[in-house]
Amino acid sequence: MSTFLPPEFKNLTEPSSIALAQSIERQEIATPLSEQPIPTSFIRQGAGGTPILLLHGFDSSVFEFRRLLPLLAEKHETWAVDLLGFGFTDRLAGISVSPTAIKTHLYYFWKTLIQKPVILVGVSMGGAAAIDFTLSHPDAVKKLILIDSAGFANGPKGGKYLIPPLGYLATEFLRNPKVRQRISRTAYFDETLASVDAALCAALHLKMPRWNQGLIAFTKSGGYSSFRDKLEHIMQQTLILWGENDRILGTTDAEKFKQSIPHSELIWIKNCGHVPHLEQPQITTQHILEYVEKSE
Questions:
Q1: At what angle do helices 125-136 and 99-109 cross, to 10 degrees?
Q2: What's the CATH number of domain 7-292, 2.60.120.10, 3.40.50.1820, 3.20.20.370, 3.40.50.2000?
Q3: Helix 177-187 and helix 166-175: axis angle, to 10°?
Q4: Start-end of H helices in the chain
C-alpha cells in the first residue's frame, strides 16, 4: 500500500478504488524547476503496444482513472500521472504551479520513465494539458485523445486576483464536502454514481501538504488559455470523446475541436455526462483501444 496516501484511504469500499490505491507509486523526477527532485505519484499497469498516458482534470488525481486504467491495461502498457500541483505529487515550496511548470514537469516525467512516443489521453483540464504538451513536444506524442476537454475557450481570469485571504477562502470553499458533492453530481448523467466512495476518491488528495497553496498558485497563474488559434498545428491523429449530457463544459466545444484539429474525429458517448471514463468506462475503453489499434 502506498505509504504517502492519507490514512483516509482505508475507508475506500469500491474494489477498483482499493486496487488503484494499492498500485500508486512515487518516483523522484529531476526537473529544471527546482534543485530538488519532485516526488511524483503515478501508476503503471499492463504491457505491450504503444504506451497510453492518462492526464486527470482540475483538482483531481490518478483516482479519476480507477475504472478506465485497468481495462486499458489489459491490452496496453498504461500510465497515469498526478500533474504538478495536483493529486499526490509533492507541492514543493518555491515552485510556482502554472501551465508552463506543469508541462515541464510532465516532459521530464515522460523522459525519465517512458522515453517513447505515447497515446496521450487528457480529460477536462487534462485535455488542455495534453494539447499544450503535444504542441510543445510533438515527437513525444503518437496520437492524442481528448475526453470532454478544456482548452478551446479561455478559463476564468478572476484567479489572478486571489490575494490573501481570498485564496485561502476560495480553497476552503472548494474543500467543503457539500460543494464537492454538488460538483460530482453535476459531472454525472446518472447522479447515483456520485457515491460515498466516489466522494472519498475525489477528496483524498485534499489531505496532502500544501494542497491549497498549489491550487491557489495555479489559479493565480491564470490557468490554461484558449488553444483555438493553435489547434491547426496539431498533426497527430486525434480522437475526441464527449459525453452527450456534459453539464460541466457543455457540448458545443466538441464540434469546435473537431473542426479545428486537422486529423480528428468526434465520437459522442450516450447517457453520459462530463466523465465518460468514470460513467461509461467499458465503452470509453472500447473507443480508445479501437482508435489506438488502427495503425498498431
A1: 70
A2: 3.40.50.1820
A3: 60
A4: 15-23, 68-73, 99-109, 125-136, 166-175, 177-187, 196-203, 211-220, 252-260, 276-279, 281-292
Give yes or no for residue 195 having a pLDDT over 90. yes
Q: Determine the residue type at 51.
A: P
Q: Is the pLDDT of residue 161 over 50?
A: no
Sheet bearing 237-243, strands edge to edge: 25-29, 38-45, 78-81, 52-55, 118-123, 141-147, 237-243, 264-269
Cell numbers standing for residue 220: 493565480
In angstroms, what CA-CA distances link 75 with 81, 144, 234, 286?
19, 18, 26, 11
Angstrom distance (rounded) from CA 39 to CA 37: 6
Q: pLDDT tens across 233-247, in order?
A: 999 999 999 999 999
CB 30 within 8 A of CB 47: no
**CA neighbours closer than 13 Å in the CB half-sphere of residue 120:** 29
196-203 vs 15-23: helix crossing angle, rounded to 10: 20
Burial pattern 42-58, b for ≥16 Cβ within 10 A else e, equals bbbbbeebbbbbbbbbb
Q: Which residue from 253, 246, 262, 251 is spatially nearest to 153, judged by alpha carbons?
A: 253
What predicted TM-score, i.e. pTM, was given to this entire model?
0.95
**Domains in the chain: boundaries:** 7-292
